[in-house]
Specification:
The protein is 21% helix and 29% strand. With 212 residues, it is of the alpha/beta class. Helix 1 runs parallel beside helix 3. The protein is globular. It starts with a strand and ends in a 13-residue tail after the last helix.
């Protein structure tokens, strides 16, 4: 599996181009900037067929409408975050002036398998940062794309329509079950599930009376 990371926009959200060796098709995860991604697709002679959104915050989907228009790719998102894509219920809307709203083509749910670019992406519902946050696991490669649910020694903020207890359940119950997996987060550098199991500061809550 090939992965290209493209930090996009003013907040440098990670967009990922993902495909299997030998494939001319690919998936793009969280297209924060269409022009940058289209240039990279052209350079690598790849065609985007699937646009996979981990959640509905503007910095991860700013380029979704333009990328779909340019490539014909379908946009995938969880139904709880789909209104954000359309510009409705967008907590960060004041910061997203100029983003082109659009509707999702496919609504995803936990356990769905999406085949794109020769890669099988398994949908994991990992809410908390947003109500409809998901991660995309590639089990054959022991790799997971976590959006803003999990970062290197950190997790996503929950003060923009999220919920910390929900996020921690996503972390401890869903993501930490992927032992041995590489993690490609929505911002900054990659990490591993093993590293986060050992060093993530949120681990203090695993046995905290507040957490249930």
């Amino acid at each position: 599996m090939e992965i290209v990371t493209l930090p996009c926009g003013p907040i440098q959200a990670n967009a990922y181009i993902v495909w299997a060796k030998g494939s001319s098709a690919c998936a793009v995860i969280d297209p924060g900037e269409a022009g940058l991604i289209l240039d990279e697709l052209s350079r690598r002679q790849l065609t985007c067929t699937h646009i996979l959104l981990t959640h509905g915050h503007f910095d991860h989907m700013w380029g979704a409408a333009d990328l779909r228009q340019a490539t014909g790719a379908k946009i995938y998102v969880h139904p709880k975050d789909a209104p954000m894509l359309e510009g409705r219920g967008q907590v960060m809307n004041a910061m997203s002036l100029g983003m082109k709203p659009c509707k999702a083509d496919v609504l995803v749910a936990d356990g769905d398998i999406i085949e794109a670019g020769g890669v099988r992406f398994a949908v994991l519902e990992t809410p908390g940062h947003t109500p409809g946050g998901v991660s995309y696991a590639v089990h054959e490669e022991k790799t997971v794309f976590t959006g803003d649910t999990l970062f290197f020694e950190s997790v996503g903020r929950t003060d923009l329509g999220g919920d910390l207890q929900t996020l921690l359940h996503s972390l401890f119950d869903k993501l930490y079950a992927l032992d041995g997996y590489a993690v490609y987060p929505g911002h900054e550098e990659p990490t591993t599930i093993h590293h986060e199991q050992e060093f993530n500061p949120m681990n203090i809550y695993r046995k905290h009376p507040w957490f249930n």
